[in-house]
Structures are given as structure tokens and as C-alpha cells.
Amino acid sequence: MFMFQFTKITLDKSTETCGKPEAGPTIPMEDTQKDKCIMGQPGRQLNYIHGSDLFGYVGIEAVLDQMRNKTMKVGFDFNIIVVGQSGLGKSTLVNTLFKSKVSRKSCSPEYEAKISKTVKLQKISHVIEEKGVKMKLTVIDTPGFGDQINNDNCWEPIIKYVNEQYEKYLREELNVNRKRRIPDNRVHCCIYFLPATGHRLRSIDIEFMKRLGRIVSIVPVIAKADTLTIEERQEFKERIRQDLASNGISVYPQKEYDEDPQERIINDRIRENIPFAVVGTDKEHQVNGNKVLGRKTKWGIIEVENVEHCEFAYLRDLVIRSHLQDLKDVTHNIHYETYRMQRLNESNVNFTEAGVMTKTPKKK
């Protein structure tokens, strides 16, 4: 059973998501070329290329502008699933992550905070626009996960949903008259919320990440980390990393997917901080004359974006600023390709339903 809503959100221009300067007006190619110098010789323009100057400036780097303009026109999809038991602040953290009310709880006026008897996946989609870039964001919530006395196989509905999205995409690819742009509903990232117990991973945490880690990129976080002291937090993170290694659990970013030494250095720094100890809030407070996102307590204000208070900034940088496209690439090139290979190797796949004609092997 799915609940689906669709809204459009325009972010404040001052909000920085990608850490890149605002795109300026498009300059005609003719005007751009006139400003270029040939072979480092000022005053010479492209209009006068002849003879040996044919091996001078070509303008291949303009393809980057072409790709950027096309992406800005078409936009892109990003699908994220949040998993964890009730009361860990999943909705609040997603709102804080995108600085908008994008969670199901925030967008449903008739939302009732009651514990579901079974795990039901519910999703809500938004079109987020910032500095001319459009992104269709889909947030999938998993109410009922881990809330029962007997939580056996509570991960099955989530695994089923992820595989169903791969199956839909595969069917679209196999169509004879397939769409020019296939809708991408595949799950690109799973944020898994761990309760701040200060002990070790629970059985449900281990079993879930073992199974889901094979089909989707998992980013584990310690929810409501402000309930732990700095020392407790570091010890808890170290125990979790030990449990992940001893149980063979693969979380994003995986070492085997590092493409070059520079990327390996960046990802090693991320892996050193996983799981991220995060705090979420959508309320602002005055700190030294500046408005900051934070949780106010009688001991002071916990600043969400201050790395000395929590590691929310590291999570935001990973999911949005530095690795968003990589999450999509890993989903398409690794997880989806693995599913696709398995399905194409199965003998009982009925491709005729997708409009693909298959030949029946001749009997010898």
C-alpha cells in the first residue's frame, strides 16, 4: 500500500546545496569565441584562423556547458528511503537535510502518529528547484519497521519494494518502443537510523544491513546523538564499525568502488566517520547574532550544522554536495546491473510481457 503526494518547492536562493557559484546568463557562442586568444597570442580571434593556426584553440571544453544546460532543462531524479524504528527523528532529519518540509509527516495534514502493525512503505515526491536546477526528490518512509515484539522478516517489504523498482526499470528497457527518458524510481540511497544506545548493533540492524547492503547503498547514522557524550559517541561508533566488519556488512562508500587514488583519499575520510552521529531540527535560534539551526536545552544550544556538536554536516555533504551523482551511478552501474544480470540469466523470465520477442530453442 502506497501513499503518494506531489508538490513543488522552490528553495531560497541563498541556500547553498552544491557549493557552486550561481550560474550566470548564457553567452552566445559567437561572443565567447571572439574573446578567445589563439595560441596565447592576444588580439587574434577565431575568425582569422588559417594555416598553422588550425592546431590552436578548438573549444572542446564547451561540452561541459552543453551538458550543464541540458541537465538544467531536463532535471534529474533522486530517490531516498529512510529506515528505522519510530521516534528516531527520521522525518525531522530529512527536512533538515533538504531545508524544506519534504517528509511525509510534514506534508500530510491528517498524519496520525500511531504505530503500524506491519511495515508499510509510503512515499512522497517533490520538485525542488534551486538556482535553475530542478530535482524530483522522492522520500520513501517505512512506518512500522522495528516497532513490533516479533520483528522477524520486517525487512522483506523493503527488499521487495527495491527489487520492484529494478524490475520496472528493466521492463522499460526491454520494451521495443521504449521511452526516450525512462522514469527512474530506483532507490539511490538508504539512510538507516541506529538508536543511540551506546552498546552495539542489534540483531535487527545486522540482519537488515546484511540483506539490503547487497541491493542498495546504505548510509548508517546514529539518531539523536545529542543524548550521548563525546566519549560515549566515539566508543559507540568504534563498536559499530567493528560489528560491521565482523559481520561482512558493506555500507556506502565501498572501497572496491573507488576509481582513483584521489577519490580513495576522500572516501577514506568519510569511512572514518561512519556512522554519522546526527541531530535533526527545523527550528532556528540566535547564536552570537546569527540564526542557526539547533536544539535548545537548558544547558545551551546544540547547533546542527556545527561539526563540533554533531556530524550532520558530514552527512549532508555526502548525500548532496559531493556524492549525490555517485550514489546514482553506483545504483545504476552496480546494484541495478547485478539485478539485471540475474534476471536475464533466469530461464523463467517472460520477456513477451515487456514486448520483447524471444526465440524458442530448437530441440535436438
Largest beta-sheet details: 7 strands, mixed
CATH superfamily: P-loop containing nucleotide triphosphate hydrolases
What top-tier CATH class fits best? Alpha Beta
Beta-strand segment tally: 10
- What is the H-and-E element order? EHHEHHEEHEHEHHEEEEHH
Identify the strand order in the major beta sheet: 1-3-4-2-5-6-7
CATH architecture: 3-Layer(aba) Sandwich
SS-derived structural category: alpha/beta
Gyration radius, to the nearest Å? 24 Å
What is the average of the pLDDT values? 81
Kindly estimate the percentage of residues that lie in beta strands according to DSSP: 15-25%
Unreliably modeled segments: 12-46, 357-364
Q: How many DSSP helices?
A: 10
Shape: globular
Instruction: Output the CATH topology.
Output: Rossmann fold
Terminal-residue CA separation: 48 Å
- Tell me which oligomeric state these chains represent: single chain
Number of domains: 1
Helix content percent band:
25-40%
Protein name: Septin
Family: Belongs to the TRAFAC class TrmE-Era-EngA-EngB-Septin-like GTPase superfamily. Septin GTPase family.
GO cellular component, one term: cytoskeleton
Keywords: Cell cycle, Cell division, Cytoplasm, Cytoskeleton, GTP-binding, Nucleotide-binding
Structure overview:
This protein is of the alpha/beta class and 364 residues long. The chain has a single domain (66-144, 152-172, 183-346), classed as Rossmann fold, CATH 3.40.50. It has helices spanning 29-34, 62-74, 90-98, 104-107, 156-174, 203-212, 230-246, 261-273, 312-322, 324-345; strands spanning 6-10, 76-83, 122-130, 133-141, 189-194, 218-222, 276-277, 284-287, 290-297, 300-303. A seven-stranded mixed β-sheet has the order 1-3-4-2-5-6-7, sandwiched between helices. A three-stranded antiparallel β-sheet has the order 8-9-10, with no helix packed on it. Helix 6 (203-212) links the parallel strand 5 and strand 6 (218-222). Mean pLDDT is 81; it is low at 12-46 and 357-364.
